[in-house]
Amino acid sequence: MKINKLFLILSFSMGLVVIASNYLVQFPFRHYGLDKILTYGAFSYPITFLITDLANRAFGKTTARKIVYLGFILGVLLTLFISTNFNDLISIRIAIGSGFAFFIAQNLDVSIFDKLRNNRLWYVAPFVSSAAGSIVDTFLFFSISFYKTGINWIPLAFGDLCVKFIIALMMLIPFRLLLAKITDASKYRIKTGFNKI
User: Fold this and answer.
1) What is the DSSP annotation of the chain?
2) Which of 46, 61, 92, 180 is most solvent-facing, going by the fewest CB within 10 Å?
3) What is the pTM of this model?
4) What does the pLDDT look like over 97-134, one tens digit per residue?
């Protein structure tokens, strides 16, 4: 069914973005003198909030949480096997920090989006929920991953958060473009009585 396909696409997309972000966060962005405050992971991770918000708009908060859980399981398990160096404590802490921060921040995003979903301004729910989730995710991830490691993580966290805010704004464009298709999925769900995955 079309609705199941959308659910699977969003779930697997979530897992892939988490894996990519967990790998890319290990590499400083070595352009324009930003290597001390920015990693490549900052550019890919905000896409997870777009996926969560699209799922929330299409299916509601219960199914959006299922996509978060599936993305969490896929992302954490594959990260452990693909990009975690078990001989390196920081690499292990990155995997743990990523999983914990992702779980808390995405669930916060789902709750905030759900509370704001009926706002007459379409962009309020995705931007506010993504911004709040980004703040929580950034603090949790960087503190768990790098606290007392000798890495000056506070400037990295600040740079990461600034990029996440910029990308959260940019993600409003695909959110708006996909809104019509997502609304169609929502109507399909209501029409056929499809309430659970």
Assistant:
1) -HHHHHHHHHHHHHHHHHHHHHHHTTSB--STT-TTT-BTHHHHTTHHHHHHHHHHHHH-HHHHHHHHHHHHHHHHHHHHHHT--TT-HHHHHHHHHHHHHHHHHHHHHHHHHHHHTT-SSTTHHHHHHHHHHHHHHHHHHHHHHHTTSS--HHHHHHHHHHHHHHHHHHTHHHHHHHHHHHHHHHHHHHHHT----
2) 180
3) 0.81
4) 888 888 999 999 999 999 998 898 999 999 999 999 99
